[in-house]
Amino acid sequence: MKNLTAAALFATTALAALPAGAETVGFAQIGSESGWRAAETTVTRQEAEKRGHDLKFADAQQKQENQIKAVKTFIAQGVDAILLAPVVATGWDQVLEEAKEAEIPVVLLDRQVDSSEDLYLTAVGSDLEHEGRVAGEWLVQQVGDRTCNVVELQGTTGSSPAIKRKAGFEAGIAGHDNITITRSQTADFTRTKGKEVMESFLKAEGGDEICALYAHNDDMAVGAIQAIKEAGKKPGTDILVVSIDAVPDIFQAMAAGEANATVELTPNMAGPAFDALEAYWKNGTVPPKFIQTESKLYTQADDPQAIYESKKNLGY
Amino acid sequence: MTLPAGLARILPMLATLALLVAAISLVSPGFLDISVANGRLYGSPIDVLNRGAPVALLAIGMTLVIATGGIDLSVGAVMAICGAVAAKMVTLGYPLPLTLLAALATGAACGLWNGLLVSVLRIQPIIATLILMVAGRGIAQLVTEGAILTFSDPGFAFLGSGAILSVPFPVLLWTAAAVGTILVLRRTALGFLIEAVGVNARAAYRAGVNTRATIIAVYVVSGLCAALAGLVVTADIRGADANNAGLWLELDAILAVVIGGNSLLGGRFSIVASLIGAMITQTVNTGILLAGFPPEYNLLIKAWIVLVILLVQSPRLRPLLARRRASRQGTPT
């Protein structure tokens, strides 16, 4: 598969004749700014290996020019597909045109671009609003008809996960008047702030008045759990804790009974991307323009300790 | 009757703090309630003292650096480095005393680096310390390998969330650090030497002050204070978060020093006033959280309060306010 020009001449028929899993795929990753991003890289490598594809990896270190350079290199090398986790939404038209001219399908991972839809094959990502709704619906099921005052730890003010996860949760509890959000404050997605803001919630509302905590990410929940413990309350029992992301540490808290549920933002964006690519290579099936990953809900019933063990080495 | 000079110096800050507390109590009536829960004091005033610990610790070192006419922008990043070093060592199984010593040594080394850049290479302090401010987070990330490095050592966690005689440990730590520093500076000539360097470094040098050693020393103290603050925030969440530990706290520390009425041009300084400044900023933070405004307003409210405090202290406005007060009281004959 080294000579792509030849392969391109034979076009899809020739490609279809090749044994499955002999493809070369370029992955232009943003960098490793968060644990989740590192886990995404690890999982993408694992997926490629599992399916027998040759993965060429480029780390852009948070810079778009590096990423564009990487994509251009992949085009020059004549890879069979490019996975791109775009660092920003704009400025991709030209390089995506080049990929299109070279007939190399591009799959966007996790983030979107502002370019025309026909410049890429598909985008794989999670629906942030849906994640919030899953968390809200879990709480609705959990409390039934009981009155429940919820405190909310928001992500960084104005960031799209904070806005969408808030809106999603509110949609999830809509129509259940027994559940009300009594306090909502930003804690910048960090543990320290999560702890500090939860301390103030406990004082402002009184520990007995809070029935549940909803945090826009697990890190803030982990900080808040410590604040709840220090206030002499039992997190997970006295105050229900639900958050989003499913990072390893929250599973430890769930195993200890201190957190109740988390909604996964899966680092496995590559799996659905490879599925779509393999179908495309095989018989030219064009996938929908957005493939939504599953926002899986994990609770204490899902053997959190085992999930912790399986996740802790992914690089989170 | 005249007030003792020390008290007169900090009176405006104390008045500001009292007014602020009164205002917050109006918005959230339970603000001043203190009780004992779980063997430790519990209440918003305790939160202020406890959450204010990192900035209070930084403010001690920052006051001294600023008194020499310098500034230390690297303290937030140094916190992250020292926290990361401590968390790394504790997870590798080193004994706690060694871990703490290593973290403090790291902080001192960072301070030494800054001090050498400023005093020997004569790089302007704002640029010299900017280098470590930027590079420091990278160093911390290298130590933690990019992830939040968590640990469960109860001894280390005690530094952040333990209590002695119901008083949270961070509160004891920053008060002890402050008392120790003030005693050393004021019982010896060190404080005077620092002020001399800040007022006129050349004159101080001609008068026989070892200005180079003095400047290096204040940056080392600042690094040590940052190390303590880094240990507290790391122990508090039982994890070293290289990206967020101490983020922007250098600015809060400078703000505390300024609210404390210390001149950024150097010279006379008051650590107590800086500490009250730190408590004022933390009271604002805690008050905003308790008030329950939408988070979009947090920064605006904080900025307005800071602006008012600084306006009240401004050299142009203060005589105006004082004259008013005097005319209202009537001039004594």
Task: Write up what this structure looks like.
Chain A: One of its GO terms (molecular function) is carbohydrate binding. Chain A: Its main location: other. Chain A: It comes from Paracoccus chinensis. The complex is a heterodimer of chains A (316) and B (333). Chain A has 316 residues and is an alpha/beta fold. Chain A has two domains: 4-126 and 267-285, Response regulator (Rossmann fold, 3-Layer(aba) Sandwich); 128-265 and 302-307, 3-Layer(aba) Sandwich (Rossmann fold), CATH 3.40.50.2300. Helix content of chain A is 45%, strand content 19%. Chain A has helices at 4-17, 35-51, 64-77, 93-101, 128-143, 160-173, 191-205, 218-230, 248-255, 270-283, 304-311, and strands at 24-29, 54-59, 81-84, 106-109, 122-125, 148-154, 179-186, 212-215, 240-245, 261-264, 290-292, 297-299. In chain A, helix 5 (128-143) packs parallel to helix 6 and helix 7 packs across helix 8. Chain A starts with a helix and ends in a 5-residue tail after the last helix. Residues 4-19 of chain A have low confidence and may be disordered. Chain B is mainly α. Chain B has one domain (53-307): ABC transporter involved in vitamin B12 uptake, BtuC. Chain B has helices spanning 5-27, 44-51, 53-67, 75-91, 96-119, 125-144, 154-161, 169-187, 190-199, 201-206, 211-237, 249-259, 271-291, 298-313, 317-329, and strands at 34-37, 40-43, 149-150, 163-164, 167-168, 239-240. Chain B has a two-stranded antiparallel ribbon with strand order 1-2. A two-stranded antiparallel sheet of chain B has the order 3-6. In chain B, helix 2 crosses helix 13, helix 9 packs across helix 11 (211-237) and helix 13 runs antiparallel to helix 14. Chain B is globular, with a radius of gyration of 21 Å. The two termini of chain B are 16 Å apart. Chain A binds chain B through residues 32-35, 38, 154, 157-158, 183-186, 188, 190-192, 195-197, 199-201, 203-204, 219, 222-223, 226, 230-232, 249, 315-316, and chain B through 28, 30, 37-38, 40, 42-44, 47, 51, 146-148, 150, 161, 233, 236-239, 241, 243-245, 286, 289-290, 292, 294-296, 298.
